[in-house]
Amino acid sequence: MYSEKVMDHFTSPRNVGEIENADGIGEVGNAKCGDIMKIYLKIENDIIKDVKFKTFGCGAAVATSSIATEMIKGKTIEEALKLTNKAVVEALDGLPPQKIHCSVLAEEAVKAAIEDYKKKHNKQ
Ligand code: FES
Ligand code: FES
């Protein structure tokens, strides 16, 4: 039911943990299932230098957050803001239809963390 990539990111997720003194933190919850995802960003000159995540949720939520952190690391915040859940799903070689909402959590968590960064640094 899951692609190899999903299983890979689920069984060995990248960038798990938290960042002390993070420049931006985004926490979102999925109303559908009650799962929670938290993303921490270290940002220098508007570039995402480091990113870590903590996800309390299903395997698809772990896999989507894991790959999302890989996709935004080293990117500018403007580029990272363009990350869509569709791009996350494609990067994972697809998700079962009933798990698409888990990828929305990843997109929202990244956006929330960047918004938090912007707010804290008077960038909006
Ligand atoms: Fe909660 Fe997916 S329904 S883990
Ligand atoms: Fe809850 Fe995947 S995030 S089912």
**Outline type:** globular
CA(first)-CA(last) distance: 42 Å
Main sheet attributes: strand count, strand direction, barrel closure: 3 strands, antiparallel
Mean pLDDT over all positions: 96
Number of domains: 1
Helix content: 40-55%
Rg, Å, rounded: 13 Å
List all distinct small molecules, including ions and cofactors, that are bound in this structure: FE2/S2 (inorganic) cluster
| Text of the CATH class | Alpha Beta
Stated plainly, the CATH topology is called Sufe protein. Chain: A
Given as residue ranges, the uncertain stretches (5+ residues, pLDDT < 50) are: none
Find the structural class using helix and strand composition.
alpha+beta
Strand content: 15-25%
CATH architecture: Alpha-Beta Complex
DSSP, total strands: 3
Total number of helical segments?
Answer: 5
Q: In what order do the strands lie side by side in the largest sheet? A: 1-2-3
Q: Strand-and-helix sequence, N→C? A: HEEEHHHH
Structural features, described:
InterPro entries: NIF_FeS_clus_asmbl_NifU-like, NIF_FeS_clus_asmbl_NifU_N. This is Nitrogen fixation protein NifU. The chain has five helices and three strands. The chain has 124 residues and is α+β, with helices and mostly antiparallel strands. The chain has one domain: Sufe protein. Chain: A. A three-stranded antiparallel beta sheet has the order 1-2-3. A hairpin with a 2-residue loop joins strand 2 (36-44) and strand 3 (47-56). The longest helix is centred in the last third of the chain and has 21 residues, at 100-120. It is globular and about 45 Å long. The protein binds FE2/S2 (inorganic) cluster (2 copies). Residues 30, 33, 35, 57-58, 60-61, 99, 102, 105 line the site of one FE2/S2 (inorganic) cluster.
